[in-house]
Design goal:
The complex is a heterodimer of chains A (254) and B (389). Chain A has 254 residues and is α+β, with helices and mostly antiparallel strands. Chain A contains eight helices and ten strands. In chain A, strands 1, 2, 3, 4, 5, 6, 7 and 8 form an eight-stranded antiparallel beta sheet that branches. In chain A, strands 9-10 form a two-stranded antiparallel sheet. Chain A is globular. In chain B, strands 3, 5, 6, 9, 10, 17 and 18 form a seven-stranded mixed beta sheet that branches. A six-stranded parallel beta sheet of chain B has the order 13-12-11-14-15-16, with helices on both faces. The longest helix of chain B has 13 residues, at 337-349. Classes of the chains: A alpha+beta (254), B alpha/beta (389). At the A-B interface, α2, α3, α8, β9 and β10 of A face β1, β4 and α3 of B.
Amino acid sequence: MAADRQDVTIAEPRLPESGPSRRSLGRGGRLAAATAGGTLLVLGLRQRSVGGVTATVAGGWLLYRGLVGGRADSDTEGTRSAGEADREDTTAAVETTRSVTIGASPEAVSERWRDPETMSRLYGGLLEVEARSEDRWHWIASGPLGASVSWDTRVIEDRSGEYLRWESLGNAPVDSEGAVRFREAPAGRGTEVTFRFRFEPPGGAVGTAVTDRLGIVPESLAAVVLDRFKSLVETGEIPTLESNPSARGAGDAL
Amino acid sequence: MRALCWHGEEDVRVEEVPDPEIANPHDAIVEITATAICGSDLHLYDGYVPSMREGDIVGHEPMGEVVAVGEDVDTLEEGDRVVVPFTISCGSCWFCEQDMYSLCDNSNPNAEMARKVMGQSPAGLFGYSHMLGGYAGAQAEYLRVPFADVGPITVDADLPDEQVLLLSDVFPTGYMAAENAEIDEDDTVAVWGCGPVGQFAIQSAWLFDAGRVIAIDRVPERLAMAREHGDAETIHFEEEDVYDRLLAMTGGRGPDRCIDAVGTEAHGTGLMGLTDKAKQQVNLEADRPHVLRQAIKCCRKGGTLSVPGVYVGHADNVPVGPLMNKALTVNTGQTHVQRYLEPLLAKIEDGEIDPSFVVTHREPLEKGPEMYETFRDKEDGCIKVVLDP
């Protein structure tokens, strides 16, 4: 449909994008992993961007490997870099599922999720989201140097207080779908929220640019969104380091 | 504003940095009037805590005056004199509702980073690495305090800074250590480490009706403080074998309750101690768990091990077999400071305890870098440093 297509844009990167090599961290002993982790962590924290978030999280993971060392049951040990297992297949699709427990009823939690203002706060710094109507959302993912891709999704299943599923329109350049399930938690703990998010970017330079940003540790996206959502519901705010002072200036991470 | 910033191992500097701002509706800004250096800051200073960034403001034991509040802050107003706990806690999640404030679900903006390392994220802390929140620390002129209705406690103007300041961390930490030790009346309690947390653990052990308190260290003035102020018997671990001495003192039973108030930078003796140190230096082992090993070995069968000392990563050669076969209980955690503020402030107000006895140095913030070195090297009789911004 032409009406759908007008909301869909692809912007090419302004300059050739070499991007971080997926294999650039090298195989590693624990010291290398810890060092790489620290570096990524610092690089990630230095950027107020999607890449910043994912690099930060990837840095945390490598740091973890640096602290813990290899696991005996790991088939990656000695043959691949510490973070690689987490990052493989990211060119194909980003898919991630995470759960969190939130201290409010399924009805209240579900209603809050559907609030358009909530949506934009949850994805802030990761993806831009706007509600075009009750069931239709417009998404923009930005890569470095002005590369971006946008697409629309519509809600295809909606059971209030239980389940919500959406997917991209048929002609969108990005094949994306998401679902969130709300279940009453045991022992009066509130609601267990399970969030699944799949994102299959277009090929070519744009796709590479965007997934290099989003794809380093795909599971971080769902985790960050859920953490923010929980804090918003439970405290009315999202913890932030936006103006956090240091000798580097004001503002850290997102 | 001026703040003490971390730049790497043994490199902290007082620098000009941006003032903090209200960023969320439950924030307050506190003008700091006194701020202490904690033994755990020395783990930062010595470069053992992961996820620090060059330029981070450190410090987490502050008090001061409220100078601004966010729109949703109900319990504080400008001009209030407050002590601020080092743990940042939302007050509304399940953990805060159970009084487990240091496990708050909502105060760490970098929760995912902590989750990668620990499985789940504990609370955000002031000035204690990005994995634990990334929040600017309190050795500065001003501090942004998130969830200001939950942490800061208002104190009367007639109580001197040094009497109430240590409610921010070390007094509640020593107290929780004694509580975690599950002390029964007349129990023998052994405390490893006679720094400020150890001193408060000793004081608190008596409040829990211990029958006997034995303190272990190697710094003469700290051992003297444990004896004279804490009424403890003492063991100098370089002069005597701790296991032999403790068993001799307890008729072969071992102390009923053991408190590790040392943590990751323990000074081990013998080959194992040297191995830990070497491994830690090349990043093969994050912690030096010497005290943990010794406490497991010494503790009475079926006894309790309480661990307020800070560990940062993973340790080798922790004797889990003895731990299991001797049926020991381990209690640990960052302090749930908010849980103890009111009852411990009441003890100070009633004159039951005066925490200022541990303070040996009070200096301007500018002397911070020098005081880190003095404190780390335990020179000049240094036990606790308070800085004036």
